[in-house]
Every structure is written in C-alpha cells, then in structure tokens.
Amino acid sequence: MFDKILIANRGEIALRVLRACKELGIATVAVHSTADADAMHVRLADESVCIGPPPSKDSYLNVPALLAACEITGADAVHPGYGFLSENARFAEILADHNLQFIGPKAEHIRLMGDKIEAKKTAKRLGIPVVPGSDGAVVSDDEAMAIAKAIGFPVLVKAAAGGGGRGMKVAQTPEDLAIALSTAATEAKSAFGDASVYLEKYLQKPRHIEIQVLGDGRGGAIHLGERDCSLQRRHQKVWEEGPSPALDAAQRKKIGLTVAKAMQELKYLGVGTVEFLYEDGEFYFIEMNTRIQVEHPVTEMITDIDLVLEQIRIAAGGDLPMTQDEVAIIGHSIECRVNAENPVTFRPSPGRIQQYHPPGGLGVRIDSAVYQGYVIPPYYDSLVGKLIVHGKTRAECLMRLRRALDEMVVEGVETTLPLFRALVREPAIIDGDYHIHWLEQYLAGQAAGG
Ligand code: MV4
C-alpha cells in the first residue's frame, strides 16, 4: 500500500479522497493555489504545498509544480480526482517516469477512451451496443451522405476529439448535412486541433444512463449498476440517481454483464464509467470516462462500496473487493449538485458563505468542502456541495430529499437550492418520467412564465 498520497485537486473531491486516505491509514499531501490557502482540504491534510497562482493552468494543471510537491513531501502516489489532470494520459506516464503511481487507469486506456472514434470501435469490438453510424471518421461529403441515407435522418455529426457535448451538429435533413459536416469540422479543428468527425443516428429523446465499473487490471472486472444522469443543463449534470427509474432488474443485469465482460477483456484497471443513451428499450454506447466521477456517491449509497477507497487499493495492486454475485443494489439514491449560481439564470455567484447549515439524519449525506465564513473563489467550478440521499425505495428517497432540502441553509451566495425544491415537487420527476432534454424544456417553460 502507498505511504503518502498527494491529492492533485481541490474542493469536495479533494476532501473525499482525503477521507479515503485517512481510513486506509495513508498520509496525505494537499496542494493548493494561492486562492485556496483557506480551503478545507488544506486544513485537514497532513501536509500542504502551494503550487501556484489562482488560474488552474498555473496551479492544479501545473505538472512541474506537482512533481516538485511530490519530491519535497516524499509522496509515492498521486490521486487526480475528477477534471484537471484526471484523464490526461501523458500526466500518468510522466508520473510513472518519476516512480510515482498515478491512481487511475492504465495510460493506454485513458488515451484510447479520449479518442471518441477509437473508443466506439473498441466498444463495438468488445460486444457493447453502439449507436448506428459511420465506422470511424467520415472522409468526404459523399461518403457521409451515403451513410446518413443508410441509417436515416436526423443524423448527428460528432468530433472525434470531442466529448461532453462539444463539437456536435445535428442534420435534420439531407439538405443540412454538408453544413453540419463543415461547421462541426471547423469547430473541432479550432477547439481540439483535430478536424476529424464521425456520424451517428440522432436519438431524439433518450435517457443518459451510465454503468459504473471496477477492474483489477488483470482481467477481473465487475459492474456496480447504473446511474441515470438525464437531468442536465448545457451538458452539466444537475441531478443523478440510481437505479434508473427506466430499468428493471433484468435489463440492468443484461447491460451490466455485457459491460463487465468487455472490461475483463480490456483488462481495465480502476474505476470507470461506460456511458449510454437509452431509448425505446435499447442501449447505445456513447463514451467511457476513465476517472472517478462527481456522481460516484449515488453508486456508493446503493452498493455500500467505497469507490475511492477501492480505487486506491486497486492502484496499489489490490484485488477487487467482491465478486459480481456479491454485488447487491440496495434501495435508491439521488444526488443534487448544489451550485453557487442564480437558480434561474445560472450565473455564478462566488463570495462569502454567511450562514451554512447542512441537513442531516438517516440516509442524508453531504459531500462538500465549504464551511460558514468560507469564501467561494471565482476561479473554479461553482459546486458548493453535493446533497446525496438514500432510501429503501425511490418514494422514500424523494421524501427524504424534500425534507433535507427544506433543512439546508446556504446564505451569502445565491445557490441552485430553490431549483431542487421545485424539482422534487414536479410530477415528471416524481414519476421518473424524464429524458436528456427535459430539464432545459422545463427551465424554458419557467422562463416563459409557465
Ligand atoms: C448524442 C445525442 C443524440 N444522439 N448522440 C452529448 C454529450 C455527449 N456525451 C453525447 N451527447 C449526445 N449524443 C446521438 N447519437 C444526444 C446527446 C446529448 C446529450 C447526451 C447526454 C446527456 C445530455 C445530452 C444533452 C444534449 C445532447
């Protein structure tokens, strides 16, 4: 096992990793920008190192500064959290070159899944269902038209180097296709330096369902059920829950075992998430994330597995914590991402938290690094904290969420709490009857006075 882990992140995930390290008896090193000197992860870590000025590129993304921090503290492993350097294959390789263990997947798998075309080809080869479309990059308008006509309009043009919704263009009809191809390629070239695009059938009202996996890197891999992340705004997830209200146990088992088998064949190491669009009873692979995700607590609550702790154990060469047969999905969990933003305009609202009262009680969890008097800096994401609830059933979970939201107090900055208090009373949410466009349509209706 590692002796000392450097946590190359900030905010709630830095604290989350720190807690797992404490439980494993591993010493911790926090790193921070000058803007984060008063942060909770800095206070709770055994040691801390200032790695640069506020902009992320000069601090949390500053690889030489991180290597120097490892050197001076004698850390033997680095946990990247999510975002920042968590899916940077080169960073994983540089750490290895310095005899430091990257707590994450093999660099080759990070790189493979970062290329959306290669990821999709790999998924298909491993027996995972994919969206009908081009087999790789499209090279000409004529080729694209032939494929589009074969799969049927509308089609979606996606950037190979994209992901998370960047560089996508819908072509509703054959007349739209040439423009969709050229704008997607131009945008992809300027955003990612790679103009390659590929084509997919456009799914109109799917759900976003993702399968959590855990692999030992030696051919052992299990799935831990799914999370439904359909409620999002501008590709930012707002509410995540598990199990998905759309699936039954047989569907869960079928897609879960397909994904687990694929990860066994890949010899995947660590935690990962295989993302699908789900429509009319069918799953369609879109991407794989090779990191711990923001919404991982939903899975922790329904499986009683500490994903961050297992991630660390596995990075140190440990075995999987259980067999697939021993994984049980218990009850229901919902996570709300509470952001320091105006609940209507979503404009960021950094500043001092004047009053803070987190909710508590049975089945209520808060993953947050804020405290009363803390000043949310303007330089980073606006997550105040995640409210995660668990119940025996979805109905109990919703009841508990309503109660917890009513208890929670965050004053001094604007937050998205009022949005969640409205959502838990919406019939479509209560019924679990929503899709990836539901929230934006709901917000448009609210803005129109509906
Ligand atoms: C799609 C799609 C419809 N059809 N692919 C957006 C982010 C990226 N991960 C994939 N995305 C989509 N891919 C096909 N073939 C619709 C989306 C999409 C979306 C997906 C998941 C969650 C929210 C979304 C919001 C808009 C579009």
Write up this protein.
The protein has three domains: 4-103, Rossmann fold, CATH 3.40.50.20; 132-201, ATP-grasp fold, A domain (Dna Ligase, domain 1), CATH 3.30.1490; 207-447, ATP-grasp fold, B domain (D-amino Acid Aminotransferase, Chain A, domain 1), CATH 3.30.470. 35% of the residues lie in helices and 27% in strands. It contains 15 helices and 20 strands. It has helices at 11-24, 40-44, 63-73, 89-97, 107-114, 116-125, 141-151, 174-192, 249-266, 296-303, 307-315, 394-407, 417-423, 427-430, 438-447; strands at residues 4-7, 27-33, 47-52, 77-79, 101-102, 155-163, 166-171, 197-201, 207-216, 221-233, 236-242, 269-279, 282-289, 332-339, 351-352, 355-357, 364-368, 375-376, 383-391, 409-411. Strands 13-12-9-10-11-14-19-17 form an eight-stranded antiparallel β-sheet, sandwiched between helices. Strand 1, helix 1 (11-24) and strand 2 (27-33) form a beta-alpha-beta unit. Helix 4 packs antiparallel against helix 5 (107-114) and helix 7 (141-151) crosses helix 8 (174-192). The longest helix has 19 residues, at 174-192. The mean pLDDT is 97. The chain binds ligand MV4. Residues 131, 156, 163-165, 200-203, 208, 232, 235, 277, 286-287, 436 line the site of ligand MV4.
Short description:
The protein is of the alpha+beta class and 450 residues long. It is built from 15 helices and 20 strands. The chain has three domains: 4-103, Rossmann fold (3-Layer(aba) Sandwich); 132-201, Dna Ligase, domain 1; 207-447, D-amino Acid Aminotransferase, Chain A, domain 1 (2-Layer Sandwich), CATH 3.30.470.20.
